[in-house]
Design brief:
By secondary structure, the protein is α/β, with parallel strands linked by helices. The chain is built from 10 helices and 39 strands. α3 crosses α6 and α6 packs across α7. The C terminus is likely disordered. Bound molecules: uridine-diphosphate-N-acetylglucosamine and calcium ion (CA).
């Protein structure tokens, strides 16, 4: 096949008034990416010679976002003449004069259009030798959309905007999806002749259909049976609907690839996430950013992972983690709060009500309960007792704690950084570790226990505790709780 030449124009100059937002419409996000980023990705999927984005409203913010996502995009500013026709006219003026190929037109606010659909549209357009091919759909309620007009033989005769349509034209249910392929020369010639004499005083791209037909070019509308492909986002309700549909499609794709997803309605997976086969995702789970999960893992319920890497067979329950790396077969949660820079080695454990940050935890090491571990490294096969806190911050600077291999930190320790606890050591329960602990030692600094007999009855007379003490001590009272054990 001869190499085709193709340019993509993305319309993004509109204001998006109905979003009622300080953020430009095309920068609102679904599936972890802005609307315009979805369209840019789809455009790139066609491997075009160039991608041109037309901007006007909030042009600085919109063009910055476009160039950040797709740096090769050509930005074109629309002038004060309104309308989709004017936008495309100015876009194609930026093409090289000798560019004689096809121009695909997409909207920045129609995020679910996909590459296979556009490929089919372009192929049909080229095979049919046409000058204009648009994607249409049959809508039982076509209100607000442009209608495709056809003659008695079914041949397209034009497109009419709802505001300009007659009663009988409004009854047409085939709508214009706003996604097109044009032959560049025919498009340019048609746009040069289109005026703004219509209900909205705009230069309509849709008027190109009748113009091209009048000059002998072929025009066809190809109906899709998937209305989501052309669904535009104009307000926040439509934004949410498009987001839900995108999520449903992403979830279905993972299911096809062997991932068990119990409840698609409460599982939210962003576009860049990857998941291995035989992993199960339980309800209420959010997988975001560049998260990757290997096979055979179990994630959720009620878990959020942002930019995390999760190993094979890992289990993460009711927890939240950002920028963390979990080795194979780790056990995390319930109710763990894993902050950036956490790395948990193979078969390691971060258990209930544990918070970590910048913590490198070696293979097989465990922090099972109620701890804060920040700015620390822990070797392999160590255990951190319940309630242990790393005091990493002196109010001015953060300091590092180093815990070696096979260390047993007792319950409720405070490890005051900077501190090093060497391989093969114990610390006693309740120790405040202020000094380094050399290999082989037990560290303890808790004062020996002293029991002051009679203190309760003397200082807390009449309390239930004092009464219990008296009962326990009264060996003569029948039924006293002094049963000898
Ligand atoms: C357009 C079509 C309509 C079709 C509908 C499908 C026209 C005249 N009408 O109507 O037939 O059914 O899409 O969704 O094309 N834009 C610019 N510059 C402008 C005006 C718009 O760049 O001057 C951009 C918008 O930002 C948007 C896109 O073009 O991304 C579509 O514009 P919009 O005003 O939403 O057109 P519709 O009225 O929806
Ligand atoms: Ca629209």
């Amino acid at each position: 096949m001869a190499e085709r030449s193709l340019a993509v124009v993305i319309l993004a100059a509109g204001q998006g008034t109905r979003m009622k937002s300080a953020l430009p419409k095309v920068l609102h996000r679904i599936g972890g990416r802005s609307l315009i980023a979805h369209v840019l990705d789809t455009a790139a999927g066609l491997s075009p010679n160039s991608v041109i984005a037309v901007v006007r409203h909030e042009r600085e913010r919109v063009s910055e976002a476009i160039l950040e996502h797709a740096p090769d995009t050509v930005i074109v500013d629309q002038d004060e003449v309104p309308g989709t026709g004017r936008a495309v006219e100015q876009a194609i003026a930026a093409l090289p004069d000798d560019f004689d190929g096809s121009v695909v037109v997409l909207s920045g606010d129609v995020p679910l259009i996909d590459v296979p659909t556009l490929e089919r549209l372009v192929r049909g357009h080229l095979d049919g030798g046409r000058a204009m091919t648009m994607l249409s759909a049959i809508f039982s309620n076509p209100t607000g959309l442009g209608r495709i007009l056809r003659d008695a033989d079914g041949a397209v005769t034009g497109i009419v905007e709802e505001k300009d349509a007659t009663e009988s034209q409004r009854r047409v249910t085939e709508i214009n999806g706003g996604i097109y392929v044009f032959a560049r020369r025919a498009l340019q010639a048609a746009l040069a002749e289109i005026d703004t004499n219509n209900a909205q005083g705009e230069k309509y791209l849709t008027d190109a259909a009748a113009r091209i037909l009048a000059s002998g070019g072929g025009v066809e509308a190809v109906a899709t049976d998937d209305p989501w492909l052309i669904a535009g986002v104009n307000d926040r309700a439509q934004l949410a609907e498009a987001g839900r549909e995108l999520n449903a499609r992403i979830v279905r794709e993972h299911q096809r690839n062997g991932v068990s997803i119990q409840d698609p309605a409460t599982t939210w997976i962003e576009a860049d996430v990857s998941i291995g086969a035989d992993t199960e995702i339980l309800p209420g789970t959010f997988l975001q950013g560049a998260t990757t999960i290997a096979g055979g893992a179990s994630i959720g319920p009620d878990t959020t992972l942002v930019d995390c890497e999760v190993g094979e067979g890992a289990r993460i329950r009711r927890s939240e983690a950002t920028l963390a790396v979990f080795g194979d077969r780790v056990d995390v949660g319930p109710f763990a709060y894993i902050r950036p820079g956490t790395e948990l080695g193979v078969a390691g454990k971060i258990g209930a009500f544990v918070e970590t940050k910048n913590a490198k935890v070696g293979d097989g090491s465990k922090i099972p309960h109620l701890s804060y571990i920040g700015d620390a490294t822990i070797g392999t096969g160590s255990n951190v007792g319940a309630g242990t806190i790393v005091a990493n911050y002196d109010g001015v600077n953060k300091h590092q704690a180093v815990i070696g291999d096979a260390v047993r930190i007792g319950s409720k320790n405070v490890l005051i950084s900077p501190v090093t606890i060497e391989d093969g050591t114990y610390t006693a329960a309740g120790t405040v570790v202020r000094k380094n602990v050399p290999s082989g030692s037990l560290a303890l600094n808790v004062a020996p226990q002293r029991n002051i007999e009679g203190w309760v009855t003397e200082h807390r007379p009449g309390t239930s505790t004092a009464e219990a003490a008296l009962r326990a001590q009264d060996v003569d009272t029948p039924g006293a709780a002094n049963g000898g054990n």
